[in-house]
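Recap from last week: sequence in, structure out.
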Amino acid sequence: MLQLLLIAVSLSAASGCSRLVDARAGLPVTTARTMDWPTFIGQQAIVRPQGAMGRGVPEGSPFKPASWESDYGSVAISGRKWAQKSGFKNFYTGGDLDPMDDFVTEGTNEEGLSAHTLYLSVAKYGSDPEKESVSYFRVVTYLLDNCKNVQEAVASMKKVQVVSAGLGTSDGLVHHGTHFAVEDKSGESAVFEWLNGKLIVYESNGPRPLGKSTIAGSSWVDFSAEYAKTNVLTNDPPMELQLANLNRYKFFCPQVSENCPNSCERNFDTGASPPRYTERNCKAQGNWDDPNARNPVFAPGLPLPGDTENDHRFVRGSYALAYLPATTSAYEALANMKLAASEVQTPFDKPVNFGEFKYPSVWTIYIEHDNLTVWWEWGKNMNTISWSVSNMAALGYFNRHKNSMCRRFDVTRSDVHGDISESFERYACPSVQYADDASLMDVIQRKLLADNLGTVSLSEERNPYNYE
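Predicted structure tokens:
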């Protein structure tokens, strides 16, 4: 057994990941999510069909595992290669962890629910050994398997406690603090944080209404902390502090106050000696309380922050969502979201807090919820690939029957672009409960033979994950 030692990444050494959701009444719902991480390690998109068996914690965990059988098929992103390179093992047994279960951080199911795991160093998980538990690296799978919308996701999260993933190295037990977000095609969204061993849930009140603007050429909408609490997510600090900080900046200040100072028009006076900025037309609030007469020049509050730190990205992401154009075209809405995501992406060599750690945006994913289309961009090439969860469902990829198999695709490949929905590699999925009476082994053998993939031994059938 590995020596018991908890390794926690400090707040100052960790930064990365952002998630934005545009959900406005009567318009397409879109999402963007970045993965900011210090290494470019391969990622795989994996298909999980209906009937797959789920276990909340790895073998040997001291916590009572939640168990389930998936009701919905999904396509998720697995960081298996990162885990392999990091040398992670099951801390409790010393054996291998399950790459299908333990390293999923992102996904969308056939009902239109999307789930995301992002870093939150100050998270402190549950500790009750008798309560049904789900490890932080299995939360996305748990939600996508069992829930068709945000309402069900909130109810499901309240039934379990999130606990350690049991990741072990030669140095001991590795701790990753995380928080989670979900959204669905109706525009509902929620954020889950575990602080001091307790679950805190932030729920939306549905899509936000379209606002009015008097600014020429702008489609500015009323965007406040009420919407940011579930539609924007970065990393530390926790949501409560992120929202308090947001209210200090232009367009988000509820009123002029000590933390939300008056705003003045600033001009660069080239005639001054030396040239300098001058302030004029200082106003307290003016007509800012009247949304039909707002002038952004006189908005109370601080100007937008420009760094890539977590709180700065939270403010800029909120600002970007406030200024997304209104369109009924799902394709245009997705393109607009792609531009919004550029506000929160991190350059490759930008250090965190000017230290040695770097957390570039190694990949970005975009989701168009009306048609359940997912677009993927990998930081090491120019290609954009996509998959349609709806089309994959229509093709029977998720069906609970004898022809169902798990599928995977290396989304870091540089030789592909465009729609890869029909290009996923099939492989035996021993955790699926089939509808017919045939034995699992017979089903797998018949499927492999039908696809000219050869045969499989019992040991291979029980461990089908040895792929590169």
